[in-house]
């Protein structure tokens, strides 16, 4: 009967003919001349759509008999029309905010009917349709950082927890008590226990997400060590080598790239700056997969090991930190993080204060960087000469080709290239190609900063992000080398990040390389990196983008 259209009463609209389709629920107002405006228990609907997609529905709820508001307009209010009492059910959905279209907010459609069995039948049909969607999680592990973003982690979780309850998603909530808590928990959890969950959610900032990612992948990924140029080889040595570290993302499912990091520290005090990798044993020279043997269950049966990538386990982020950016940066940005540690009591404002202090010092660093050539894309590089002598204020910008922005259902990330074509979008799923015939390009000199990002890192302060054209899952990272330059020019470069539509990477002292891997070598021991908001001390680093290593609870970046 539903397929032919059944008359129900929709709160704020009046009588509607409702039809149940294969991908959603559609309805047609029978009296559109009355106008529509829907008030719900959660708030005002941004815009009343005539179709509800099952993918936007997180719960269907049978309610007690009660009032359902009729169609609202000035004439009806003046006549003193009252709400109708009837049997009800609510369809809870996620929709876009009216003020901020990129934000998703919860709201509800309230339906009513005089017959309680009709409401019950609709709830059963809709619940069955929703439960048939395979991607819906049933059990999640949630890590909450109580001190992130001026202590708003717990408050943010308390705000969204009812949504999980209403959606009948079981959550195991862990409030972190120390640095490394999430990492230790996930690194030590058995595969049998991990398989009870459909994913892990981080309620915190970039540092907590980094802990979760490293804890999961510590012994569960088969990715080899990042490639290095000939002569770099420190992999055979165990001295001061901290092993592999992972950073980054993949998309409801959005697949995302992760970054595999190999490092050599520059001092014996590195453990103070790197709490997330204190596993107590070196992984140098070991096959990473061998660290996680099959686990026997209590009955003696072998439990198949969990490896990444896989198609069933996903990660989620409920942003609650100060920056919530997933990025690797060195030099200026690393110094900002180190300086800001002294002012954590200031909350997010500590980055503005510390950034100003570090900027005024205008410190540069001698370093060498080697990156793998990407034949299918262009790099934008400065010459190694003194840019202060060659740059004029109005002539210091280069023109770049039009950017392809990553967004939901991105064709680049979905690998839409025809098999066999040698296109930029056709990226192998493994690192085998990287290790076969690598061609390294070196850049040497004094740098104000060195950065790498696998996503654009768009945020309120940088509306286009660090690299506007970075894609979530194309197998590449974007290497940014900022050469030493006069302070006013560097300030001009930094201010361009705050302007939407601007391009801060067109300055002649800026090198932008799209690559799959790079190696960094500094000439001094005090080298501090900003890795997802965490301090990370290393004088030699090798980094590789691993395509599609993890999956996210997301549909892709919003533009």
TrEMBL record:
<dbReference type="GO" id="GO:0016020">
    <property type="term" value="C:membrane"/>
</dbReference>
<dbReference type="InterPro" id="IPR001206">
    <property type="entry name" value="Diacylglycerol_kinase_cat_dom"/>
</dbReference>
<feature type="domain" description="DAGKc">
    <location>
        <begin position="135"/>
        <end position="232"/>
    </location>
</feature>
<dbReference type="Pfam" id="PF00781">
    <property type="entry name" value="DAGK_cat"/>
</dbReference>
<dbReference type="InterPro" id="IPR050187">
    <property type="entry name" value="Lipid_Phosphate_FormReg"/>
</dbReference>
<dbReference type="InterPro" id="IPR017438">
    <property type="entry name" value="ATP-NAD_kinase_N"/>
</dbReference>
<dbReference type="InterPro" id="IPR016064">
    <property type="entry name" value="NAD/diacylglycerol_kinase_sf"/>
</dbReference>
<dbReference type="GO" id="GO:0016301">
    <property type="term" value="F:kinase activity"/>
</dbReference>
<protein>
    <recommendedName>
        <fullName>DAGKc domain-containing protein</fullName>
    </recommendedName>
</protein>
<dbReference type="GO" id="GO:0006665">
    <property type="term" value="P:sphingolipid metabolic process"/>
</dbReference>
